[in-house]
User: Fold 1,4-dihydroxy-2-naphthoyl-CoA synthase from Kurthia sibirica.
Amino acid sequence: MQLTDILYDKHHGIATITINRPDVMNAFRGATIQQLIYAFRDAWDDVKIGAVILTGAGQRAFCTGGDQKTKVDVGGYDFNGGLGGGIGLEIEQLHLVIRNIPKPVIAAVNGYAIGGGHVLHVICDLTIAAEHAKFGQTGPTVGSFDGGFGSSYLARIVGDKKAREIWYLCEQYSAAECQEMGLVNKVVAGELLMDEALNWAQKICAKSPTALKILKYSFNADTANIQGISQLSMASLALFYKTDESNEGREAFIEKRAVNFAKFRK
Ligand code: S0N
Assistant:
């Protein structure tokens, strides 16, 4: 596969996957998702790989979710290579491969982790953040939602009240605040982020791969039902993206204006 949207590197047993679209703050489009799935599957299949690091190119953003500029008026994202009937992004498959790869995945959050980009770090096994990183969901502001791992699993980590606050208010949280709520494992200076992520990955690589695999699947098993919620949520999202209400959120973001959802309150 030609890797236009990501960088993929394998070194000393560690696979590093970098979302490489800094011009749009590492927002993902259909091709980005497919390339991420490809890299995670390759790392899964490679017996020399013991841990995976997911990060973003540059200093500004880890990932800011779906690329609003490739979203069309009706039905979601403008991408023909995905599975039919969905939102035009194989995001559900990406979530599953991050959860199911039998090796720990570390998110090295180097800037904004927002919207669908925030969900990616939530699903990773561990998160190390740069001091300047900012975290948050934007769905209800831009006419979108992630009712599965992005919200139900988030609530398992930070608690129900906090998860509701994060989604209902769509505010941004600092790396220190996220560490306080158990959403980030460690905060380091920006220039030390990749060194620390590599350090943790090296420690993991020295451990029993079978023990790590069974532990990961054991942690996952307790929240496996959330996959069903994800399916329902993505199917609902495909319908919601066809509405004027959802479209108002996308248009307001593109046009850099205040969003107006008042007329959709019935
Ligand atoms: C990251 C933010 C807060 C940065 O703000 P700041 O510093 O004011 O910079 P901007 O001028 O806003 O941004 C700089 C340039 O980058 C572009 N850009 C930023 N984010 C995106 C994006 N997601 N798509 C396309 N372009 C983006 C800006 O447009 C700007 O470009 P220029 O210079 O040309 O104007 C701020 O940028 C921000 O809030 N970004 C939007 C984040 C966002 O809303 N993402 C989508 C979130 N969606 C959801 O939450 C839905 C739920 C979900 O998780 C999901 C589930 C399934 C499938 C998809 C998604 C999904 O993520 O959509």
Remarks:
- The first strand starts at residue 6 and ends at 11.
- The mean pLDDT is 95.
